[in-house]
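Q: Give me the 3D complex with fe (ii) ion.
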Amino acid sequence: MKHIEKYMLEHMNDYLKPIDTIWQPSDFLPDSSHDDFFEKVKDLQESAKGLSYDLVAVLIGDTITEEALPTYESWLATVEGVSKDEEGGWMRWLRNWTAEENRHGDLLNKYLYLSGRVNMRQMEISTQYLIADGFDIGTDRDPYRNFIYTSFQELATNISHRRVASLAKRDGDALLSKMCGVIASDEARHAKAYTDFIFQILKVDPSEVMIAFEDMMRKKIVMPAHFLREIGQKAGAAFEHFADAAQRLGVYTAVDYVEIMQDLIKDWQIESVTGLNDAGERARDYIMKLPARLTRIAERIKNPTLEYKFSWINAI
Ligand SMILES: [Fe+2]
Ligand SMILES: [Fe+2]
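A: Here is the predicted complex, encoded as C-alpha cells.
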C-alpha cells in the first residue's frame, strides 16, 4: 500500500473529478425554489408511470445499495495500510471516493421520492437494515483482496446503472435515463482506478495478487447488498428477488459476471504475468480456466419467473 500510494496520489485527479465542477444531484432534479416545481414533479411522475415493475424494483435495490455507503467506507478504512495515518494518502483517497459515491444514492433517492411509485417508508426500513446488517465479502483486511473486490464491483455497478439507463429510456423516462447514465460514468472511472491499482501491484508482487484473485473467485464475488431484506424478513431474503429481477431484465446477469472476470483477466494481462512462484502459477491456471466453466453454467440458468411483490413498490 505504501508502494502504490505515491502512484495513486499522482493519478488521483484522473480518477476522481474536482468537487467544484462535477455534477450534483440538483443538476437533474426539479428545483423546489422555482415556480415551475410542481409542474416539473408532475412531468417526472408522468414519465415514471411508464417504468416496468421489475425496473422499479431494480432501481430501488440499486439505490439502497448506493445508500449503504457507510458500510463501504468503514470497511475500506479497516483495510491494512489505509487507516494507519488519518492524514495519509489512502485515507484521502477513501474520503474523496466516498464523497463522490455519496451523490449516487442522494440523486436516486430523491428521484424515487418524487416519482410517486415508491413506498418510501418500506424502502427506508430496508436501507436502515442493510446498513445495520453490513456485509460479508470474504476479503478480510487484505488490500489485494479488497481492491480486486472493488475492481469487480465498480465494473458491475457501471453495467447495471448503464442498463437501467437504457431501459428507462425505452420506457419513456429520459430524465431517469440521464441520471443513471452519469452515475454509470462515475462508476467507470472508479473501476479504472481500482483495476489500475491492482495492475501496479501486480508488477511488484505478482504471486500474491494472483493468489488473492484466485481466492476471491473461488469464494465468488458477492454483491454488496447480499444482506438486503424487507420488514419482518431475515437478512438476505429480499436480495434474491432483487437479483432475480435484475437477471430477468438483463440489467445484471450471470453472463455479466463472467464478462467482468474476462475483462479483469485482460486488463491485468493475467496470461503474460511473469515471475510467479508455484502457487502463483497454480492460481493463474485456475483463473484462466474459470470463465469457460462459468459460461457453461451461466448458459444453463433459466430466467427466474417468480412474480414477487416488494413492499417497496406502490400499486398503480
Ligand atoms: Fe455508486
Ligand atoms: Fe461505485
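A quick observation: The chain has a mean pLDDT of 96.
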